[in-house]
C-alpha cells in the first residue's frame, strides 16, 4: 500500500504538505493538484492509511511539556493522564526544557515507538511538527498556539493579563510593572498585551521600563524584580506573567521588606501554598487540569478516526482578588 511518503516523493512536495492537503488545509493550487494527481496514480487513500496506522500503533500517547517542575504543567499532565488512563492508554511524559532540539528528539521517539498521538506545549515558534504530522499521527497543541493546522487548547491569555492589571488599578496602585516569560512565546506576549490594554483603558501611559521579559521560572522573577526595585522610580505593583515568576518576585519583595500588599502583586496562575502572604496577592487562576482533560479527549477522538476540521478551544482564567486590602 502506498504511503504518505510515496505520494510526497511523486508530487515533489514534503510529507507535511501531503498531510495538509488531506486535512483540508489551504495549500497552493499547484501543490494541491500535484498531490491529488500523485495520490490517484498510487491509489493512495488517506483514511485507509490512517486505519492501518491505528492498528499498528501502541496504546501510548506522548505528552511533551517545557517544564515538569512547574505546577501548572504538572496539573495539566494529571488531567491528560486521568482521561487517557480511563480510555486504556498510557502517557509518556517528556520534559523538553523549552529546547527545540530536545523536543524534536521526543517526537522522533514517539514515531519510532509507534505511539498513537502527541499532546504538546511547543518549546518555540520554530518547533518542527512536520515529521510527526507526516506519519498521520494526531497532534494536539496545548497552552501555546502553533502555525500548524492541528487541534489546540489555549488560555485566554490577553484577557488574563488585562484582568490582573485591572485589579491592581482598582486597588489604587499607580505604577504597575509586568514581568513575563520569553517574549517570543505567545503566552508571554499576549499577557503583556493584556497588561497594556488595562493601563491604556485606565488612561495610564505605557512606560517601557516597566515591561520586562525573562524566563518562566523563579529565577527569572527574582532577577527582574530586583532590576525593577533598582529603578530611580520603582513600581508600586507588578503583574507576574506566570506562577513561578510570581514566586520569585514575591521572594525579592519580601527580602526588601515590601511584602504584599506594600507592593501590589497579581499573578497569572496559581501560587503554591508555601508562598508568603498568598492572601495578599491577586491571582488569575488558569484551569490547567481542565486544559489537560480537554486536550486528551480531543486527541482520543482523533485516534478513533474523527476527521473534522481542526478545532481550537479557548479557556478563561478565574480572578481571585487579594483578601488583604492595601
UniProtKB/TrEMBL annotation:
PROSITE patterns xrefs: HTH_LACI_2
Keywords: DNA-binding, Transcription, Transcription regulation
InterPro entries for the chain: HTH_LacI, Lambda_DNA-bd_dom_sf, Peripla_BP/Lac1_sug-bd_dom, Peripla_BP_I
GO molecular function: DNA-binding transcription factor activity; transcription cis-regulatory region binding
Residues annotated as domain HTH lacI-type: 2-55
Name of the protein this chain belongs to: LacI family DNA-binding transcriptional regulator
